[in-house]
Specification:
Number of domains: 1
Order of helices and strands: HHHH
Mean pLDDT: 85
Protein name: TraR/DksA family transcriptional regulator
Distance between the termini: 30 Å
CATH class: Mainly Alpha
Number of strands: 0
CATH superfamily: DksA, coiled-coil domain
Structural class: mainly alpha
Largest sheet: none
């Protein structure tokens, strides 16, 4: 397994970034849930025309896709926070190699190398 040479200040900054990102993702999820409730309430028992239904279904589909993406990202943020506490932040969960500092700065919730993340994305697309 690789070791990481990330300094304490960097880890502290990353932890704060991850906590801020976590709060933001939760807030977006809460807002999307409120929007969905409003859409459902607006549709109520009233007759709707096909255009209204189409717009509502398209909005609902977009909201569900965003929520799914944010849920996966929230899980990655939580894992990255665990890794900071464990002392393994910056080491890939997959192959145990060091994750470059530049990647961690760009995507603080990274728990995999770029190559591993790309491989996983390709697998996910084929499902």
């Amino acid at each position: 397994m690789a070791t990481t040479s990330l300094d304490h200040d960097f880890l502290s900054r990353q932890k704060q970034r991850l906590l801020d990102l976590r709060r933001q993702l939760v807030a977006v999820g809460d807002a999307a849930g409120a929007d969905e409730q409003a859409l459902q309430a607006a549709a109520g028992g009233e007759p709707q025309d096909a255009g209204d239904d189409g717009e509502r279904f398209a909005q609902q589909e977009n909201d569900e896709a965003l929520l799914g993406h944010n849920e996966r990202r929230l899980a990655a943020v939580d894992r990255a926070l665990e890794k900071i506490d464990e002392g393994t932040y910056g080491i890939s969960d997959g192959n145990g190699e060091a994750i470059p500092r530049a990647r961690l700065e760009a995507v603080p919730e990274s728990c995999y190398t770029v190559e591993e993340a790309a491989d996983q994305e390709r697998i996910d697309r084929t499902r």
